[in-house]
Amino acid sequence: MRIGELARRAGVSTRALRYYEQQGLLSARRSTNGYREYDESDVRLVTEIRSLLTVGFTLEDARPFVDCLRAGNHAGNACPESVEVYRRKLAQIDEQVRTLLHRRAEVEAQLADACPGCVLRTGGTK
Amino acid sequence: MRIGELARRAGVSTRALRYYEQQGLLSARRSTNGYREYDESDVRLVTEIRSLLTVGFTLEDARPFVDCLRAGNHAGNACPESVEVYRRKLAQIDEQVRTLLHRRAEVEAQLADACPGCVLRTGGTK
DNA sequence: CTAACCCTTGACGTCAACGTCAAGGTCAAG
DNA sequence: CTTGACCTTGACGTTGACGTCAAGGGTTAG
Q1: Nearest residue (Cα to C1') for C26?
Q2: Which chain A positions have a beta carbon within 8 Å of B104's beta carbon?
Q3: Do the chains contact at A110 and B86, CB–CB below 8 Å?
Q4: Tens of pLDDT, residues B40-72
Q5: Nearest chain B Cα distance for residue A58, angstroms
Q6: Helices (H) then strands (E): counts for chain A
Q7: A63-103 pLDDT, tens digit each
């Protein structure tokens, strides 16, 4: 199939597909007229990339998964490198949550300071 | 004082100060040679901006606080507009935390799927 | 006089993942 | 033959808060 069909089937733009190729995550053979040609496995591959991006992975994070699929594995996460990325991302998310909660506390304290009575709903007045 | 001293005292770069001015958050009178001249109140103002940025506010978010200080208030958060920003940011932070926790759960589920036994430490095996 | 340090404006670079145009080639249908 | 739908590469724009030159002028100590 050509790039337009792959884009539709994977739910992404053609621009995104060319970008993935440029980043070395996707490859395509070329037909005689220069058009990119893809097969079914590419649909799977792009879908994998998309699902990773939606949970906050970067394309760089997705690379091991892509390599894993390309290596013939049934799933992108079937390789130790992918599992390692999972661990790294979990740690990263935890860190981000901690940062956000810390900020939240500071902002709430400031709000309470600026507007006594504004934050009462949080702990209950009794 | 000139820009270099303000920068040192507020702990920011001169570039940042010029940027704040460009964004309309900071103003300076000019001495005869064209140098920017600041006073004590500007130290306070820049410090306020900084503390807001460190808890995740954008410069746009900081604007009401700056206006509030400039209007002669003792604190940047003494105005209703500032309080409103606090509320907006709290809601925004909560949303971000929810998103992150949702993603965390998905990643963890994927990890468990890819590597059974990897996530056991979370709930205890028993 | 000159080093040395301060200041000025202007403008490009950074980071991610594309969006959006521009200018043009390809191919099947009417 | 000509739409019109597809494809190509190339290149600039987006977002936020600056970093980092470049090229030049001001000021002061020695």
Answers
A1: A33
A2: 90, 93-94, 97
A3: yes
A4: 999 999 999 999 999 999 999 999 999 999 999
A5: 14
A6: 5, 2
A7: 999 999 999 999 999 999 999 999 999 999 999 999 999 99
* CATH C-level class of A3-122: mainly alpha
**Domain-by-domain residue ranges, chain B?**
3-123
**Nearest-Cα residue of chain B relative to residue A56:** B103
How are the residues of chain B apportioned to helix, strand and coil, as percentages rounded to the nearest 5? 65, 5, 30
Pull the structure tokens for residue B53. Answer: 């940025």
The three-class DSSP label of residue B107 is helix
DSSP A66-91: HHHHHTT-SSTTSSHHHHHHHHHHHH
Residue whose pair of structure tokens reads 């589920």 in the numeric block: B109
pTM, 2 dp: 0.86
Q: Count other Cβ atoms within 10 Å, centred on residue A66.
A: 22
Calculate the CA dihedral of residues B70, B72, B76, B82 and round it to 10 degrees: -90
- For domain B3-123, give the CATH number: 1.10.1660.10
